[in-house]
Amino acid sequence: MRRSLVLIFMALFVLGSAAQAAEPVRLILDTDIGNDIDDALALAIIHSLENRAEARLLAVTITKDNRWSAPYVDLVDTFYGRPDIPIGVVHKGKTREDSNYTRMLSQRRDSSGNYVLPHRIAGGSDAPDAVSLLQRVLEQQPDGSVTIVQIGFSTNLTRLLKEAGGRELVKHKVKLLCLMAGNFVRLEPEYNVYTDADAAQYLFANWPTPMIFSGFEIGERVQYAYENVLKDFNYTDNHPIAEAFKIFQPAGKDRPNWDSTAVLYAIRPDRGYFDLSEPGRVSLGPKHTTVFTPDPNGNCRYLILKSDQILRVEAVIETLVSEPPLRTSLSARTQQVAF
Ligand SMILES: [Ca+2]
Known about the structure:
The protein is an alpha/beta fold and 339 residues long. It is 42% helix and 16% strand. The strands form 3 sheets. It has an 8-stranded mixed sheet with strand order 3-2-1-4-5-6-12-9, with helices on both faces. Strands 7-8 form a two-stranded antiparallel ribbon. The chain has a two-stranded antiparallel sheet with strand order 10-11. Strand 2, helix 3 (69-79) and strand 3 form a beta-alpha-beta unit. The chain starts with a helix and ends with a helix. The site of calcium ion has 8 residues, from loops.
């Protein structure tokens, strides 16, 4: 009898450990979607990893101040069967110009006048403010549980830090911030940093949790092949990622994959895709370059991509981006109400 009880307890322990190991990464994506195509690839990767219960997308906040960014995120989320993911938008942001793929795909209609890619947000003004949404979503999460991936400018997250109680909220709720930002092998300005340099400088100096940077030098070595766009999405006529890629990118031209690498690390940090630098601090140098200063007490590290991992990283990104939506994901999500 006693032996049976021991076995039962052991089984429960093993099951409990497995359940713990399977806890999805609670993720907030902060993106300047529309300024490049890799933000769209990153969003697709999150959805495909949520299909595997490796991630749970809590919200998407946008740092591109253009009315078509939120509708495009909405139509991608809807395509993947998750139309209720909250979306927040920046106000008085740094890049306001139209982006071709977000505008065209948000407006594309069939002969009956219906959206080809359904979505409910018709314009940026339909979505809540990004900082308010970040506060609301973080407040609802367990302490130390949230990973934020910033693949645009630091506008939203710096504004969050500067809100009354904002830094404390981040400190309590966020366990990790992954950023596509900077360049850690060449002293060159990088777009996500210099576009809102004041915000980046503030963020790097004041963010209270560990930060992992995917520098420009990582994504430039991880190509997304145009050939894959032509071959891998033929299971549907209007795939929001493949269509966006074809609109954004000249025909036949591969595109580096900066933002996807930050998302991949954020959700799968232990798969050996990347190595990590020693700890340190990141500050801004001349012309908004990023300067890494080693410091055992620093809260920053940057990704290192070894040559023998490049093809592997490219392949996993291509697979996850092109994977068909899980049509049962809505019911699967409902079953995960314990979050
Ligand atoms: Ca981006």
